[in-house]
Design goal:
By secondary structure, the protein is mainly alpha-helical. It is built from 22 helices and two strands. It has a two-stranded antiparallel sheet with strand order 1-2. Helix 3 runs parallel beside helix 6 and helix 5 runs antiparallel to helix 6. The longest helix has 44 residues. The chain is globular. The relative contact order is 0.14. The N terminus and C terminus are likely disordered.
């Protein structure tokens, strides 16, 4: 008599698991090319010259890119009602139009554009980023519910490498003697074409995969951590070093493609190979049991063991599963909103003004500062994932609002350090602000889901990050006004520590208020995270208990899998 097993179901189960990893790879690709707004300083001078605008108007164009996030909730609504493939294509087309028209203008194919037309195009291009990010966040959260912080941190960290990759391509295309206008054209062309091309490639892979029962994925994430850290280290080293030959930028591009595009594919490929091996192994376990050895098994059916070995501790549900209307009525949301506003958003405004800050202090190595902020921003985004993973391995859990407290305090201190005129203090503060800003942005993805649920995450998180354009305008305008006031009309330039001293003090005090708000949010959510920890500990204890099996066929042993394995059947 032949007994049924779960072997026939292994093929779809394992192929679905491989598709889950493939979706993460697609998200990494999308995030890697989605930091197009970070390239603005590379062609801003050319826009300023062509449009004959002031420095204040140029700052407004930088704000325009952030202003596109105000309409980010449209991307969230679209993701709730439209296929992800449509959302990705819409986002990439918006960027294609926003950056494409600017490319035609800089290339003199379009004879004239007004300042407000360029402003609107920048808003459109900035909004395109929200559409792609929304799909990336939702795919990661739904495909890896038990590893949401780990998966989100790994994928979002690649945004920090966009500027580095685009610069490598520009260096490979242009020579050292190429004009800044030619380099600006290449940057805008890449911003126009590359996101659209990658979105078309990623459309079949960036989707929610229903793989049934969640399986352990520690080994896959360890491999992904190794690849990501190696990519970051190489990016830092190659950014700080000089080019030994003309071919070096081309080599950089090839190595980055291998590390980001090809290396992560090893994980879904390995998952598929393991699935095939597991299938062959399970086929060998199918045996015909003599009826006399069945003991008291009723009606020829064997009670199947729950696959304890592949279960993972699912995270407890969100504090609340609510939509936009309910969320904006919650005090926790507004506390959270202003924490981000007074932390990560101020950090982003600092980086938008980093060129002028270094110039006013007499620091000539602006490119090194940009590379430093990018590198520490990358590792800052990755660090919460690493800590979350290793804490969970050691059966510990850190409250995410508590993490915000630990990240907000250094930002405040870094702004006060900037009052010191030393270039060393400038480098130290830039590294601290870069790391903490990146870590807050990464933590916020999971924290939004924790507090308000994953069902309406697309809309909820886009409403949260709408504080970025608001802060970009307010803080940027404040800094620009003080800059021009201290410049005393000197051709729009200000040299000296007085240019930003008051700005740094105000930003430091505001970040200090944000730190206090982080403590308040931690106190308000402490009970929720404690219950979450208790529930996770209870599930781990349950998973560790080996069930007692009775009426087991003679000569058979029960493995934590799908079938009986018999060692003495003839």
């Amino acid at each position: 008599m032949s007994f049924p097993t779960k072997a026939p179901n292994i093929i779809p189960a394992m192929s679905q698991a491989a598709l889950q990893w493939l979706s993460l790879v697609a998200v990494v690709w999308l995030q890697f090319i989605n930091g197009t707004n970070t390239n603005f300083p590379a062609y801003s001078s050319e826009l300023k010259q062509l449009l004959s605008i002031s420095q204040l108007q140029l700052n407004n164009l930088a704000f325009a890119s952030d202003a596109g996030k105000i309409l980010g909730c449209l991307a969230g609504l679209a993701a709730d009602h439209l296929p992800f493939s449509v959302v990705l294509i819409v986002g990439s087309v918006l960027g294609f139009i926003g950056y494409g028209v600017q490319f035609l203008y800089v290339s003199n194919i379009i004879s004239s554009l007004s300042y407000w037309q360029v402003f609107c195009l920048s808003v459109l291009a900035g909004n395109s980023i929200c559409w792609i990010n929304t799909v990336c966040y939702i795919v990661v959260l739904r495909n890896f519910p038990a590893y949401r912080q780990v998966a989100a941190g790994i994928s979002t960290s690649y945004i920090g490498l966009s500027a580095k990759f685009f610069t490598d391509i520009v260096d490979a295309v242009c020579t050292k003697h190429s004009s800044q206008l030619r380099r600006a054209k290449v940057y805008l062309l890449l911003n126009t074409v590359l996101p659209l091309a990658v979105c078309v490639i990623a459309v079949p892979m960036a989707r929610v995969i229903d793989a049934g029962k969640e399986r352990k994925k520690e080994s896959g994430f360890i491999v992904m951590f190794v690849i990501t850290i190696a990519t970051g280290i190489y990016s830092v080293i190659s950014s700080l070093g000089s080019d030994p030959s003309r071919l070096w930028p081309v080599i950089n591009v090839i190595i980055m493609i291998v590390l980001v595009v090809l290396a992560p594919l090893a994980i879904p490929l390995g998952e598929s190979l393991v699935g095939e091996w597991w299938l062959r192994k399970e086929e060998l376990r199918v045996h015909d049991f003599p009826i006399k050895e069945l003991g008291s098994v009723e009606d020829g059916k064997i009670e199947e063991e729950d696959d304890v070995s592949v279960e993972v501790c699912q995270e407890v549900g969100a504090k609340e599963e609510i939509g936009l209307k309910s969320m904006v009525m919650r005090l926790d949301f507004w506390i959270y909103f202003f924490i981000y506003f007074l932390g990560a958003t101020i950090g982003l405004v600092f980086f938008n003004n980093l060129g002028q800050i270094s110039e006013s202090r007499g620091c000539s190595r602006t490119s090194s500062l940009v590379a430093l902020s990018s590198a520490f921003g990358f590792f800052g985004r990755l660090t919460p994932s690493l800590l979350d993973y290793f804490f969970s391995r050691n059966k510990c859990m850190v409250s995410r609002p508590a993490s915000l407290v630990a990240l907000m305090a250094p930002i405040s201190g870094a702004f006060f350090i900037l009052v010191n005129p030393s270039n060393l203090c400038l480098y130290i503060s830039t590294a601290i602000i870069g790391a903490c800003t990146g870590a807050i942005a990464s933590t916020a993805v999971s924290l939004t889901s924790d507090l308000f649920g994953a069902t309406n995450f697309g809309v909820n998180h886009n409403v949260l990050v709408a504080n970025i354009p608001l802060g970009s305008f307010l803080f940027g305008f404040f800094a620009s006004r003080l800059y021009h006031k201290e410049g005393h009309g000197g051709g729009g330039r200000c040299i000296g520590m007085q240019c930003y001293r008051q700005t740094f003090i105000v930003w430091g005090l505001l970040s200090l208020i944000g730190t206090f708000l982080s403590v308040v949010l931690y106190v308000r959510t402490r009970k929720f995270y404690f219950q979450r920890f208790q529930a996770a500990a209870a599930r781990r204890l349950t998973a560790d208990v080996q069930p007692q099996w009775i009426n087991q066929p003679s000569g058979c042993s029960r493995r934590r899998s799908f079938t009986y394995v018999c060692s003495s059947l003839q």
